[in-house]
Amino acid sequence: MDIKIKAVRFEASEKLEDFVVKKLSKLQRFSEEIGNVDVSLKVVKPETAMNKEVTIKVAMPGKELYAQEVCDTFEEAVDKNLDSLKIQLSKYKEKQKNH
After folding, report:
1. What CATH number is attached to the domain comprising 85?
2. Element containing residue 87 per DSSP (H, E)
3. Widest CA span of the chain, in angstroms?
4. What is the pLDDT of residues 50-99, one digit of tens each?
5. Residue 95: per-residue pLDDT
6. pLDDT value, residue 98
7. Pairing of strands 52-60, 63-71
8. Range of the domain at 44
9. Contact assessment for residue 71 and residue 48, using Cβ atoms and an 8 Å cutoff
10. Is there a contact between 23 and 79 (Cβ–Cβ < 8 Å)?
11. What is the DSSP letter of 45?
């Protein structure tokens, strides 16, 4: 599993990047088939609350899983995206079993 992090319009701290990698590494427990994981961190409107947007794309054989959240902090957005991706991964695995 290859995790790529892209920070848009700001410089992501090493601590934030480590947090993202640590959290997303947990996805491997759900599937060995995960290829690339692209993470986009973006500050939407710097002067407002709820301005941290996190988009995660997970490449699977024949499918791409996608999650996007806007929250107060990047950490919160990553956590919510992770929950969404876990659900998508379990549905993906169910479909694979039924074929």
Report:
1. 3.30.160.100
2. helix 74-98
3. 49
4. 999 999 999 998 899 999 999 999 999 999 999 999 999 999 888 888 86
5. 85
6. 80
7. antiparallel
8. 2-98
9. no
10. yes
11. -
Spatial contact of 30 and 86, defined as CB atoms under 8 Å apart = yes
Tokens of 4: 């790529």
Placement of tokens 């996190």 in the chain:
54
What is the rounded distance in angstroms from the CA atom of residue 66 to the CA atom of residue 98? 22
Between CA 62 and CA 13 the distance in angstroms is 33
pLDDT digits 0-9 by tens, 7-30: 998 999 999 999 999 999 999 988
Domain count, the chain: 1
What pLDDT does residue 31 have? Answer: 85
pTM score, two decimals? 0.92
Task: Tokens for 45, please give them.
Answer: 């409107």
Q: Tell me the two tokens of residue 77.
A: 């957005």
What are the tokens at 75?
A: 């950490």
